[in-house]
Amino acid sequence: MRIIETIGALQEHLGQCRDQGKTIALVPTMGGLHAGHLQLVDKAKTSADIVVASIFVNPTQFAPNEDLDKYPHSPEADKKGLVDRGADVLFLPSVQQIYPENQTSDYEVGEIAALLCGKSRPIHFDGVAQVVSRFFDIVEPDVAVFGEKDYQQLQIIKQLVKRQNRNISIASIEIARESDGLAMSTRNKYLSTSERMLAPHFNQALRQAKSNYESGMALDDLINKARESLGRPFELDYFEVLDANTLTQITTSSADVIIVSAVKLGITRLIDNIVFRRSNV
Ligand code: AMP
Question: Which H/E stretch holds residue 25?
């Protein structure tokens, strides 16, 4: 695996790959890699000839009160994981490379960015769209792979690609989970031992809500039940049942449903979701 730190060197290498007729997949990450990230690499390998994984902790998607300074990093383990999984290039740019002075970007994110996580993290998706646009400009991938754990982010990126008229296909993978159901996340490292033992209850509440939905319980009731079951120490940010394709209220024509939630457990923000097909449509 080549480790490349500058845009110039990356573009020179990828230019040579393209001259040989090879296609390129991009897997953007912020490092602190876990098994879910490595599944993105697996997916990328089935989607293109050359896999470029990037590690860049993007400052523009963190608010001043968030965890930019202490975001977990594990560079040696990350490199080993990526080599073992067969990534071809690890792109490790500096903030200066990604955001040189006067860098501007057209990253209109639309209404969807103000919902769900966007309510409590108002600048977050602007920053995500900015950095993803920048990586798309630099790498010019044929395909880019994202996780469905960050479902709202995935929808925003799909819209961005359409709006910016980019010739990039967006692939995704399902949520990778620990054996007790907790969605894998770099931020799970923040959980104390006792919080880690409680954390699977979050996914259980989502699964219970799905089963209540399927047995015909009214949305308000099943959301209230989930709120009650996720009592302290969980601090609920949102718990919603929505049309999975629009992230708006379910209508008679909604084909897919998402149950999506964010909570805080101690200092750790957890997100999770379940997407399923509506049986009666
Ligand atoms: P991150 O480095 O955590 O910001 O995420 C980089 C990519 O990995 C994003 O596309 C995430 O959606 C994806 N990802 C993170 N955790 C998971 C997971 N548990 N399952 C699937 N994809 C994930």
Answer: strand 24-29
- Point out the residues that are catalytic: 37
Are 99 and 126 part of one and the same domain?
A: yes
Cis before 64? omega within 30:
no
Q: What single-letter amino acid sits at 273?
A: N
pLDDT tens per residue, range 149-208:
999 999 999 999 999 999 999 999 999 999 999 999 999 999 999 999 999 999 999 999
Is the shortest distance between the CB of 138 and ligand 1 below 6 Å?
no
Residues composing the chain: 281
Token pair of 280 as six digits = 């009666």
Residue-number span of the structural domain to which 131 is assigned? 2-173
Amino acid 109: pLDDT: 81
Q: Please give the C-alpha separations between residue 127 and each of 52, 56, 149, 153, in angstroms, as whole numbers.
A: 21, 13, 18, 11
Which residues are CB-contacts of 80 (< 8 A; sequence separation ≥ 6)? none
- Same-domain pairing of 164 and 197: no
Structure tokens given for 144: 């880019």
Q: In which residue ranges of the chain is pLDDT below 70?
A: 102-108, 280-281
Give CA–CA dist 198/234, Å, rounded.
9
Interatomic CA distance for residues 56 and 53, integer angstroms:
10
Last residue of a domain, one of 147, 173, 199: 173
Instruction: Please tell me the predicted confidence (pLDDT) of residue 71.
Output: 97
Predicted confidence at residue 281, as pLDDT, reads: 59
37 in contact with ligand 1, CB cutoff 6 A: yes
Dihedral sign for Cα 263, 268, 269, 271, please.
Answer: negative
- Read off the CATH number of the domain in which 198 is found: 3.30.1300.10
Please state the atom number of ligand 1 nearest to the C-alpha of residue 33: 2
